[in-house]
Amino acid sequence: MPAQRPTVAELAAGVRARDRALLAQAITLVESTHDDDTARASELIAHVLPDSGGALRVGISGAPGVGKSTFIEALGEQLTTDGHRVAVLAVDPTSSVSGGSILGDKTRMPRLARNDRAYIRPSPGGTSLGGIARRTREALLLSEAAGYDVVLVETIGVGQSEIAVAGMVDVFVLLAPAGAGDELQGIKRGITEIADVVVITKCDGDNVEPARRAAAALRSALALLPGPEHGYPHALRPVLTCSAREAIGLREVWAAVAHVHAAAAASGRLELRRKEQSLAWMDHALEELLRERFERHAGVAQALEQISREVVAGTLDPTTAARRLLDVFQR
Q: Which of 9, 27, 51 delimits the end of a domain?
């Protein structure tokens, strides 16, 4: 006989009691796409919402190979040593062919995964844009309710769509390789403009001087770009170097993150930003619900095949096709 699932109240109580197993079940519930779980997930978030909001939320992005997992593990170990409780919400890319994800972040951060003061949750990116999973926002709130005072959100990689993660964190950290110094080569301008802290990684061994030169070049280049859109003072956007492998420069990176966060809190900008993020979250949820209802509408499902054939044949333009489908939905 299968074990009975915990109730929403039991999940909420377990999350607040810092029960890691129940936290994992709670996040699994909010990530579920099953119809039966949707109402339970909404009820769960309503339960824990008053206990959320107390963490320093940090987004971490960078191109594949820049060392995101190594950096996060080293930073997480330092933070837990300093008394913090750290949650890592790591997003793995989903195959567009098989729909599967590796979800290997726990194996890439083995020491942090064994740390009692840390919690690592890998989630599939699915079809969500922005380098984040479909329910990263909910997972973040649940982690805060579980008493984690630092939440690190690791994105899939660098791209224009990755700016979505900046819409759910307090401080956005961009990791860059030493070769990024020449005219921001390899880094999208859009994501560079919203970065609060830029870190040149792997500053060790023969890479020390190239990393330092890259940092200097990036400082000069960033001076030509506008500061982050969320209103943090441009002067607070430092470019630092670090070696996660040798644990060099991590304290300076965290000091910069904490400084940006404290300045935003003192100015009232952080509170405003959190409010704007909540409204953006509502808009995203509304779009998602409308899309789901649209696709499940019986009339739309029947009309979609014929209209799609006309679009493919070139006898109907996509905009008119969309309007016809919307007319069917509204009948």
A: 51
Q: Which residues form the domain of 285?
A: 281-330
Band the pLDDT of 93: cuts 50, 70, 90.
Answer: low
Amino acid at 76: G
- 114 and 245 belong to one structural domain: yes
292-307: buried (b, 16+ CB within 10 Å) or exposed (e) per residue? eeeeebeebeebeeeb
CATH number at residue 9: 1.20.5.170
DSSP string for 244-309 = TTTTBSHHHHHHHHHHHHHHHHHHTHHHHHHHHHHHHHHHHHHHHHHHHHHHH-HHHHHHHHHHHH
Domain match, 47 and 62 both: no
- Do 42 and 150 belong together in one domain? no
pTM: 0.85
pLDDT digits (tens, 9 = 90+) for 28-69: 999 888 888 989 999 999 999 999 999 999 999 888 889 999
Indicate whether 309 and 191 sit together in one domain. no
